[in-house]
Amino acid sequence: MRLPCPLCGDRDRREFYYQGHAVALDRPARDAGDGAWDDYLHNRDNIAGEVRDLWHHEAGCGAWIEVTRNTVTHVVSGARLVRGTAK
Amino acid sequence: MGYSALKIFKEGLFGQKGWKPVWRNPEPKAEYDVIIIGGGGHGLSTAYYLAKEHGITNVAVLEKGYLGGGNVGRNTTIVRANYALPGNSEFYSHSLKLWEGMEQDLNYNTMMSQRGVINLFHSDGQRDAFARRGNAMINQGDDAILLDRDGVRDLVPLIDFDNVRFPIYGGLYHPRGGTARHDAVAWGYARGADQRGVDLIQNCEVTGIDIEGGVVKGVQTSRGAIRAKKVAIVVAGRSSQVAEMAGMRLPIESHILQAFVTEGIKPILDQVISFGMGHFYISQSDKGGLVFGGDLDFYASYAARGNLPMMEHVMEAGMTLMPSIAKARVLRSWGGIMDMSSDGSPIIDKTETEGLYLNCGWCYGGFKAVPGSGFSYAHLIAKDMHHEPASQFRLDRFRTGRGLMDEEGTGSQHNLH
Questions:
Q1: What percent of chain B has pLDDT over 90?
Q2: B128, B292, B304, B322: which one has the fewest Cβ atoms less than 10 Å from its Cβ?
Q3: pLDDT tens digit string along B21-69?
Q4: What DSSP line would sit under B78-102, residue for residue?
Q5: By three-state DSSP, how is residue B347 classified?
């Protein structure tokens, strides 16, 4: 599996660390309540199909990227930098 | 029809013509007391114990494919009770006791082989951690022996003791652990449930869960609507999709775990051993094939097949531990879909919908839990009370943060288990 890093181009999966679903970009406010924090930390849509997830190009340029990927076919259809977005 | 040596002998004399199918293939009835969604190991054992322990026999198991066609037929067959964390420790201890009586209980040869499980360690710190784990197992009433290097060498001569980076310092030996024939476990529970009147309905996919006023009323399926007083979800690999039919989001992310088997070779490995450098474990099947695996591929997936990087890693780990297996050819590799919970421990609980129950999140350890999970889930469904050994597997621990069960101590976060 290769991921299209917007800075480096197509790179091998081995260069990336997998963080998980891109819900990690939407950190709730401190006082948002336990339901919001449960959804942020634990609960997942866990879709069998197209998902957005976060990968860190740790053995490359060091960028965090949001990858659009199909969990059934492993087809990767896009990636964008998450620079500037809270992580 | 009971199985016995005499029966086998008689059938041998008369051309094996007396064997009959061991379970019926019934049409679904309009209504059941309990519907179990999922005809895998856990679903079938739940049905069996509902009938045997609680006398509840008006039960249907709905399976979208064929019985035992999911993870119970795709694992590496290891049985053990070597957990340290309260909540896990008593559950797996109970499950192992059920394994030990399973063949007599089911009158079915599940090829339960208590060949022992050895977790190797490679440093003083790792030895301390395993000594502590062993003490926790002994406190639970199970067996654990801390072996030194020579103790391991007596049992497992064909591993590399002097690897420069990961020398073998010793191992934690769990003699009552071992392996069982995975398909036979599913078939044995299926036969036992069927004999007690449970309807096992295959090729019947659940497409919706009917809920009225917060109370479950039944399910919609590819073979029509079926009413039920209670509905129990136990569908590892598809838990999030089925729970969504009841409006739930689960603390589950689905991941791939790969496994491998070589061609059959002469016996070289009596036990199950795990390499402490990371995730690598290996045993030898009764047919002679080396069965081994490693860690998750570490990205969410439903593909049921893995990628090359983890395959390479597993082979490298295997070669580091056992250079002697270099020439064994790998016959097959495959991937299973793991229900990964965010703290690495399972869920057996009621839901906010009355009469709807949830059993999921077994991560990569579901096989050894098959009897214990079914026993405890049946108890919960029958009595609406948690069975003591499984009483910590609560769904609300994730929201409240109380009672999170992070056995490995890595943190309760999806990408860490």
A1: 95
A2: B128
A3: 999 999 999 999 999 999 999 999 999 999 999 999 999 999 999 999 9
A4: EE-----STTHHHHHHHHHHHHHHH
A5: strand
Question: How do residues B154-182 score in pLDDT, each as one tens digit?
Answer: 999 999 999 999 999 999 999 999 999 99
Give me the residue label for tokens 């599940």.
B110
Q: How far apart are CA B171 and CA B123, in angstroms?
A: 11
For the domain made up of A2-83, the CATH class stated in words is alpha beta
- 8 Å CB contact of A72 and B303: yes
Instruction: Flag if B250 and A44 touch (Cβ within 8 Å).
Output: yes
Domain boundaries, chain A: 2-83
pLDDT(B189) > 50 = yes
Contact: B254, A46; criterion CB under 8 Å: yes
| Region of poorest pLDDT, from B39-53, B78-92, B274-288, B344-358 | B274-288
- For residue A14, the surrounding DSSP H or E stretch is none
- Give the side-chain half-sphere CA count within 13 A for A68: 6
* Cα gap A9→B59, rounded to integer Å: 55
Instruction: Give the E-state strand segments of B301-396 in sequence order.
Output: 330-341, 347-350, 356-360
Q: Looking at chain B from residue 241 to 270, which residues have their Cβ under 8 Å from any Cβ of chain A?
A: 241, 249-254
